[in-house]
Amino acid sequence: GLMRVALDLQTSTALFARIFEYLDLKPAITDRPGATPLAELPSTGPLVAFDGVTFRYPDQADDSRPTLDSVSFEIEAGQFAAFVGPSGAGKTTVSYLVPRLYEASDGRVLVAGRDVRDVTQESLMAHIGIVSQETYLFHATIAENLRYARPEATDAELETAARQANIHDTIASFPDGYATVVGERGYRLSGGEKQRIAIARVLLKDPPLLVLDEATSALDTISERIVQEALDDAARGRTTIAIAHRLSTVVDADVIFVVDHGRIVERGTHASLLEADGVYASLFRQQSER
Ligand code: ATP
Questions:
Q1: pTM of the full predicted structure?
Q2: What does the pLDDT look like over 58-99, one tens digit per residue?
Q3: Model-level ipTM above the cut of 0.85
Q4: Which domain of life does the protein's organism represent (predicted)?
Q5: Are 50 and 109 in contact (CB under 8 A)?
Q6: 196-230 pLDDT per residue, tens
C-alpha cells in the first residue's frame, strides 16, 4: 500500500512539473467530461494543426480585436516550424494554445488529428516538451529539478542530458555540483543557465513534440550561442514549434509562418519568403542591418 502511495506521488510530481513549466500562466483548464488519452503521436503526416483559430485572452472584451484572428496552419511530423513577426504579433500565444494552456475562442487546435479539448490534459502534456521564456526552478537540488521531468532517471541519464544541454560543466563547477540547491533563496543561476536546465529537462523527458519560446534576446552573445546550440540539438529528431525572436535561428526551418496583428500573413521557407519580398524580407533586412 505504501509503495503505491509513493509511486502515485512521484507521478503527480512529474505532472505538476509538466504543467508548471508555464507556471506564470496558472491555467484554469481541466479535462472535459469524456476526455480520452492521446495515443502515441504518428511519425508521419500532419501533427499539429490550427483550423480557423481565433483567440482572445480572458480579460479581453468580446468585441475587441482578437489576439489571434482566424489562424490556420498545418505542421507535419518531424518538421521544424518557426513563427516569426513583430513584437506583440501573437507568436507566443500560438505556443500557449498547442498544449492547451488556453483554449481557442473559436476554431480548433488539433494534435495528431484530435481536438486538444477532447484529450486528457495529462496525456497531452506527456507528449509535449516546453522551453519557455521563464524557467521555473523549484527550491530543491539541481538533480531534483531535472528529475521532475522523469523521476526514475539515473544519475548517468541526468548527466547525459545536462551535457547535451551544454550545462554539465557549469553544474560540475558549482560548490555542490548536482546537489546544489537552486530556486527561491537558493544558488542564483543566470538566465542562460536556467534555460539550459530547462533544455536538459526536455531532453530527459524526450517528448516527440517540442515547443520552444526563444528568450535568447536577454542573453549575451556567448551564452546565446551556447543556448542556441543546445536548442538545435534538442530539436533534432522531433517535431518542433519555435517562436523565434531572431531570424538567424530560422533560416533552416522547414516552414516559417509570419505573424502580424494576430494573422498569418506569409508562409514558406527562408528562400521563398525572401523571394516574395514581403513582410519577412523586410524584417530580415532590418535585423541584418543591426
Ligand atoms: P513578442 O515577440 O514581443 O514576445 P509575441 O508575438 O509573442 O510578442 P504575444 O506574447 O503572443 O506576442 O502577445 C500578443 C498580444 O497579446 C499582445 O498584444 C499582448 O499584449 C497580448 N497578451 C499577451 N498575454 C496576455 C494576457 N495574459 N492577457 C491579455 N493580453 C495578453
A1: 0.86
A2: 888 888 999 999 999 999 999 999 999 988 999 999 999 999
A3: yes
A4: Bacteria
A5: yes
A6: 898 899 999 999 999 988 765 556 677 777 778 88
- Which H helix or E strand runs over 194? helix 191-205
Dmax (CA) of the chain = 66
For residue 188, how many other CB atoms are within 10 A of its CB? 9
Rg of the chain (C-alpha set): 19
* CA dist., res. 273 & res. 258, Å (int): 9
Cell triple for 24: 506564470
pLDDT score of 10: 47
CA gap 198, 68 in Å, rounded: 27
User: Among 57, 83, 265, which residue has the most ligand 1 atoms within 8 Å of its CB, making it the best to mutate?
Assistant: 57
* Ligand 1 atom having least distance to the Cα of 262: 14
Residue whose C-alpha cell is 528568450: 215
Query: Which amino acid residue places its CA nearest to atom 31 of ligand 1?
Result: 57
**Residues contacting 106, CB < 8 A, separation 6+:** 52, 53, 54, 55
